[in-house]
Amino acid sequence: MADRAEYARKGIARGRSLVVLQFADGIVFVGENPSRALHKFSEIYDRIGFAAAGKYNEYENLRIGGVRYADLRGYTYDRDDVTARGLANVYAQTLGTIFSSAAEKPYEVELVVAEVGETPEGDQIYRLPHDGSIVDEHGSVAVGGNAEQISGYLDQRHRDGMTLAEALRLAVQALSRDTNGSEREIPAERLEVAVLDRRRPQKRKFKRIVGSQLSRLLEESGGSAAAEPDEE
């Protein structure tokens, strides 16, 4: 089991890091991702977002399974019965079964499931490592790559009530730090950013931030770089 855990951790560490932060109006997902088609962040249901680091085909299978679970539960019962906690439990069972099975290799993935509440106190963030355990996170969380170093940086600087621009600046600063302590610049076109915005009047609170909107936020936060036109 120790060998399986080490195998999974090494696979996850090869992926680029991502961070999930609470801010005043919701939850923001920020990661370095040069691909415009293969997303690290996705919507699962009305108020629930999904983030993953590691092997793309494995976490994409988990994402699709989560969407199916949420749709079925919402249709069978009620939309309010679909919660991040319930989804995290489903993912934990799946990852735990795969990790303990001798018939297949463990998944090289680490997941974050987040749900935005009516108020900041109602926000929920759950981190799920490769072995299927569930960690209830508050404020900020980092997974993939040098997540431990990034988490330490965020823990010291994240605070309640941050604006979206402030949270984005903090996330980019954290992701820009290399393992040796030096910093590098991450251009806007290499960033993937999404939010769960509790202020949105629609039931669906998930929205990607791209293009000129992302550029404006980076300028507000003291960053720079041009991006492509807005997309929903």
UniProtKB/TrEMBL annotation:
The formation of the proteasomal ATPase ARC-20S proteasome complex, likely via the docking of the C-termini of ARC into the intersubunit pockets in the alpha-rings, may trigger opening of the gate for substrate entry. Interconversion between the open-gate and close-gate conformations leads to a dynamic regulation of the 20S proteasome proteolysis activity. It is found in: Cytoplasm. The keyword Cytoplasm applies. One of its GO terms (cellular component) is proteasome complex. Its main location: cytoplasm. Keywords: Cytoplasm, Proteasome. InterPro entries: Ntn_hydrolases_N, Proteasome_alpha, Proteasome_alpha-type, Proteasome_asu_bac, Proteasome_sua/b. It holds the Pfam family Proteasome. Pathway: Protein degradation; proteasomal Pup-dependent pathway. PANTHER family: PROTEASOME SUBUNIT ALPHA/BETA. Belongs to the peptidase T1A family. NCBIfam families: 20S_bact_alpha (TIGR03691). Component of the proteasome core, a large protease complex with broad specificity involved in protein degradation. The 20S proteasome core is composed of 14 alpha and 14 beta subunits that assemble into four stacked heptameric rings, resulting in a barrel-shaped structure. The two inner rings, each composed of seven catalytic beta subunits, are sandwiched by two outer rings, each composed of seven alpha subunits. The catalytic chamber with the active sites is on the inside of the barrel. Has a gated structure, the ends of the cylinder being occluded by the N-termini of the alpha-subunits. Is capped by the proteasome-associated ATPase, ARC. This is Proteasome subunit alpha. It comes from Streptomyces ziwulingensis. The lineage of its organism: Bacteria, Bacillati, Actinomycetota, Actinomycetes, Kitasatosporales.
